[in-house]
Amino acid sequence: MKLFFSLLAAFLAGSNASPSVLPRQSSVRLAVSPNCGTLAGAPASVNAGLKDLSSFDTIVAFGDSYTSGGVADGSALAPADIVPPNPSAGGRISNGKLWVENLANVAGATLHDYAINGSVIDAMEFQMSSPLRQQKDFLGQVNSYLSSRTRPVNPDTTLFVVFVGTRDYENREDLTFQNFSLTTGAISYAIADLTFSSGVKNFLFVDNYGRGEKTSDGEAYKQALFDALKDAKAQMGISFAFADLYPIWNGVLGSNPGYEAFGFTSPGACIVDQSLNDACDDPDHTFYWISEYPSASTHSIMAEYVEKVITQFRKAGYQAIDRICDYYYELQQSKFPVVSQVEPGYLRPLLPSAAPDAGEDFQQIADDYQKYIVPGYTHWQHPSFFGYFPTGFSFEGLLGDLYSSSVSNPGFNWAASPSCTELESIVLDWAAQMFGLSPAFLNSSGTGGSCIQNTASDSALVAIIAARSTYTAQFPDAKLEDLVIYTTTQTHSLGVKSAMVLGLSTRALEVKREDKFSLRGDTLRTALEEDRKKGKKPFILIATVGTTSSGAVDNLAEIKEVVLDYPELKIHVDAAWAGLSLVCPEYRDKFYLNEINEIADSYSTNFHKMGLVNFDTSPLWVRNRKYLTDALDVNPPFLRTAAGDAGTTIEYRNWHIGLGRRYRSVKLWFVLRGYGVEGFQKYIRKLVSLRERFVEHVSSSDLLQLVAPPSLALAVFRIEPKQPNEALPEESLNNLNRLFYGRISARKEVLLTQTVLDGSFCIRFSVGSPRTQEEHVDKAFEILTHEARLAIESWKQDAAPSLD
Ligand code: PLP
Q: What protein family is recorded (predicted)?
């Protein structure tokens, strides 16, 4: 308070001294945003089902207000007399429109005013000696409204607005019983009366208790009010919004962000003593008009704030969905190329060099996203995206992600959010069954189980950590420098990366072209024997079902025979991409489902590849959950819970590296339900048929040839011109294909990626977008043929004239 008066004095002194040099000010702006909460949580601004403001043609105001004089009968206020020093303008204790008038303006609605300054909820609750006992209260206002002959009749287009808080709370000492339930009971009664008698079920409650100063009983009052509204919603079916004005008062009177951020020149009042008719020189930039009564500028930002509570998130949300739908429509029409056209570093000059001091308008942010960020995307969901392994997408997944994000829940313990843990354990059991995984891997087995990791790389890292921990527990004398991770020359870089992270060595076992780049049992056995002799300790093999470069599959049937003799060797099966095909029975033998079920200690696949789930969802299944928890269980006191200690719940924090974890099961649940097993099967078969179409084109081409057998939705090919006399040397072919790939990469309307197989430079064609149709495959092949011809021509001229 002291600070308040000294600021006020400073302001008045300053303005008296040199009124003419006041800087020109832009208008006051809302420098805070409502923290939109949920009904489930503590009281917070929330829109619980209230329609857009524009759908109301009538607003009826009840409760406290900033008016004085003969209102509270539903009539409009007299026009504002805003000529200072008149402190009370047209019945308002402000120098212009009140917030509710501004709100009615925004809505385009007629305002019927029953609210009155200093009103309480129920005057009868106050002691006889209290002046408030004589006050026209909210219940009285409701009576006036309901007995008015002229009251509006359309329940759908009428909004009841109730401003509560400040006065009720400040005068609590005068209450007969300081019991919030009486007050909230009166509110419930008034809501019931209004709803029953008028049929109107639309309510907006605006709360401003404490004016920026929180106290524990004030918070309890707010909680009771909020709970009463939730009950009224549940019991009487009302739609309501609750706007908590605390951020404005706290924002101006405190330092976050402080009054200047709003454009106020003072957090104080323009008129200090109503009876003195004094006034400041800059009434448009003071927070209060009269002490504790907001100025017209403040009323205007109050209305904006309330409007944001009701509409901002919805509007912005609908707009975002509209824009996403438009984006997909345009993708489908190939209205823009797959590959981004921007140059490296394009973004920095377009964005400010630091975050804004004050929060910015949401619409502006959304527009800037379209303008600056979207152009820098490579469109992984484009129908002509044939690079890498495409990422999954479905609208079910997108909406699941939205719901997940709406609760922003780190779900590390069962107790941290039971549904996060339980849903994950259930949907992963669904997935395991859909792939035909052994019941041993199910969470319901109580022994095995699964959890969603960030990526297949994380799954491999976690599996290696678990295997290392098991090995060192079994062989305590083993030195870490002797431990070896087995991969193959075709294993994804996740093997080497994990080894780097853990400071361990890898040995990449050789796979051969004639074996279709598959790891054979003999190769494994020989390596194990060699290493055993050298005192090395191979402790885990990363086997792959569907390698990145060619979709090759390690021969798990042969590997199974070998590991019978090396039981200490753990097997992690990385089926990041191909694993989804196990949903189709016809692929189960080819991809060694039986052997996975028999020998894999851990198994990983990515729903975010061929699994229709938006990045990221990468489950890891283990045969024995202790495998993970023995290696990763840390139990500091602050993470202990009764359920965890009892061992009756899954504590997923002990199944992966981080503590908090993204809540991904909800999107997986949406997608699994949205498509069903048959939907997944159909999708995989469609991808394979598109790849088959591409292979038919290649087979009929006199320029292009496959380099490896096609696998699922992947084909690997290169230029191999038919030479009349002799085959080209490998190095020449590689140069030619590098040139070819350079040309393809320059084409922005199609995207393919390169690889090297057994020394041969080649190009991958990988189908994966749900939007890809035959025409896109045909078009891609047309582009490839065209570029192949040009590549051969220029290569003949520049590089190999002698070969002509
Ligand atoms: N394993 C294989 C066989 C892959 O093809 C890939 C990526 O394409 C990965 C692992 C890596 O996947 P993630 O990005 O989920 O780590």
A: Belongs to the group II decarboxylase family.
Ligand 1 pocket mutation pick from 386, 457, 573 by most atoms within 8 angstroms of CB: 457
Indicate whether 420 and 293 sit together in one domain: no
Please identify, among 276, 302, 328, the residue that sits at the C-terminal boundary of a domain: 302
Q: Tell me: do 292 and 414 sit in the same domain.
A: no
In angstroms, the CA 210 to CA 215 distance is 8
At 85 the pLDDT is 56
Q: In the predicted model, what is the mean pLDDT of residues 298-322?
A: 89
Query: Would 752 be classed as within a structural domain?
Result: no
| pTM of the predicted protein model | 0.74
Q: How far apart are CA 339 and CA 385, in angstroms?
A: 9
**392 CA to centre of ligand 1 in angstroms:** 13
Query: Which domain range does residue 37 map to?
Result: 2-302
Reading the block at residue 577, the tokens are 């991409």
pLDDT band at residue 180 under the 50/70/90 scheme? confident
- CA atoms within 13 A of residue 524's CA, in its CB half-sphere: 29
For ligand 1, what atom is nearest to the CA of residue 574?
A: 1
Inside any domain, residue 750: no
- 166 and 34 in one domain? yes
Which of 380, 389, 452, 492 most suits a substitution to test ligand 1, by most atoms within 8 Å of the C-beta?
492
Would you say residue 332 lies in a domain?
Answer: no
Does 14 have pLDDT greater than 90?
no
Measure CA of the first residue to CA of the last residue in the chain; give whole Å: 93
Evaluate the CA torsion angle 734, 739, 742, 746 in order and state its sign.
Answer: negative
Q: Give the domain CATH number at 12.
A: 3.40.50
Q: How confident is the model at residue 136 (pLDDT cuts 50, 70, 90)?
A: confident
The alpha carbon torsion through 604, 607, 611, 613 (nearest 10 deg) reads 180
Three-state SS for 603? strand
With a 6 Å cutoff on the Cβ, whether 617 touches ligand 1 is no
Residues 287 and 423 occupy one common structural domain: no
pLDDT for residue 87:
67
Angle between helix axes 395-407 and 665-699 (nearest 10 degrees) is 150
Residue 282 pLDDT more than 60?
A: yes
For residue 452 and ligand 1, the question of a CB distance below 6 A is answered with: no
Average pLDDT over residues 262-281: 84
Q: Which of 574, 580, 662 to mutate to test the pocket of ligand 1 (most atoms within 8 A of CB)?
A: 574
Residue 83: its pLDDT value, please?
Answer: 58
State which of 244, 277, 302 marks the end of a domain. 302
On the question of pLDDT at 676 being above 80, the answer is: yes
Q: Which atom of ligand 1 is nearest to the CA of 458?
A: 16
Number of domains in the chain: 2
Claim to verify: residue 278 and residue 133 sit in the same structural domain: yes
What average pLDDT does the segment 244-272 reach? 93
Q: Is residue 174 part of a domain?
A: yes
